[in-house]
C-alpha cells in the first residue's frame, strides 16, 4: 500500500529522532541526556518526541531495535586480518589488531556499532534508569567473550581462562580507561586499549613478542 504524505512525514520525524538521539547519546554518554536534549538535536519539540515515544526508555528500546547493533565485530575483523596475512595470527598480532579496531571506534565516534556505543557507556545512575543500556552493556560483554573464545580455539591463551569473566574484566578496564581520559582531560591511548585486551591472559610465551612480555612484567611489578 502506498504511503500518504502524513505517514512519510511521520516516519521521517521518527528517523530524525533516532539518528540525532544516538549521535547525542554516544557523544555525551557521561552526561545526562534528557528528552529535551534529544528533541533539540533532532530539530523538533518535546511534544513531538512524545508523539513517537512513551519515554526515554522507550526511545532507547526503539533505537536498539532499529539500528540492530552488529555482533562479532572483533572476531570478524581478526578473521579478515588472518585472510590478509595468509597465515594464523599470533597472540601478539591478534591483540594488536583488536586494539586497533576498538581504538578506531573510540576516536571516530559516533558509530552505529555496538563497540562505540558501549565503550562510551553512561554512569551507573543513568544505567539503572534505562534497562536498554544494561542490555547494550551485556552485548558488549558478549562481544569481548567471543574475542576470548576465538583466542582459545586457536590455543593462543590458556584453556582454563573463563571467557565470560575475563570479558567483564576487559570491559571494566576499557570503561575505566575512557572515564580516566575524561577526568584528566587527555585522550585514551592505543597502548591502554592494547593492555586492556591482553593483560589478563595466561600467555603462551612462544607466541608473544618481547615488547608485550615486558609490558606484562612491568604490570606485575606494580601489583
Automatic annotation (TrEMBL):
UniProtKB keywords: DNA-binding, Repressor
Protein name: TetR/AcrR family transcriptional regulator
PROSITE patterns: HTH_TETR_2
Annotated HTH tetR-type domain residues: 11-71
DNA-binding region: 34-53
InterPro entries per UniProt: Homeodomain-like_sf, HTH-type_Tx_Regulator, HTH_TetR, Tet_transcr_reg_TetR-rel_C_sf
MF terms in GO: DNA binding
Gene3D superfamilies, per database record: Tetracycline Repressor, domain 2 (1.10.357.10)
Amino acid at each position: 500500500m502506498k504511503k500518504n504524505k502524513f505517514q512519510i512525514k511521520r516516519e521521517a520525524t521518527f528517523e530524525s529522532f533516532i539518528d540525532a538521539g544516538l549521535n547525542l547519546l554516544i557523544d555525551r554518554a557521561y552526561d545526562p541526556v534528557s528528552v529535551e536534549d534529544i528533541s533539540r538535536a533532532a530539530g523538533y519539540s518535546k511534544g513531538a518526541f512524545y508523539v513517537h515515544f512513551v519515554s526515554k526508555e522507550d526511545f532507547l528500546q526503539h533505537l536498539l531495535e532499529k539500528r540492530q547493533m552488529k555482533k562479532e565485530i572483533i572476531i570478524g575483523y581478526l578473521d579478515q586480518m588472518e585472510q590478509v596475512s595468509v597465515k594464523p595470527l599470533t597472540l601478539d598480532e591478534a591483540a594488536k589488531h583488536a586494539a586497533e579496531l576498538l581504538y578506531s571506534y573510540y576516536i571516530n565516534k559516533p558509530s552505529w556499532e555496538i563497540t562505540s556505543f558501549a565503550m562510551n557507556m553512561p554512569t551507573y545512575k543513568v544505567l539503572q534508569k534505562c534497562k536498554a543500556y544494561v542490555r547494550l552493556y551485556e552485548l558488549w560483554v558478549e562481544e569481548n567473550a567471543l574475542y576470548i573464545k576465538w583466542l582459545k580455539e586457536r590455543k593462543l591463551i590458556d584453556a582454563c581462562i573463563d571467557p565470560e569473566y575475563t570479558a567483564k574484566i576487559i570491559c571494566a578496564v576499557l570503561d575505566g580507561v575512557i572515564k580516566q581520559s575524561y577526568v584528566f582531560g587527555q585522550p585514551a591511548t592505543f597502548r591502554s586499549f592494547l593492555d586492556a585486551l591482553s593483560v589478563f591472559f595466561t600467555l603462551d610465551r612462544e607466541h608473544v613478542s618481547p615488547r608485550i612480555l615486558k609490558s606484562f612484567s612491568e604490570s606485575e611489578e606494580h601489583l
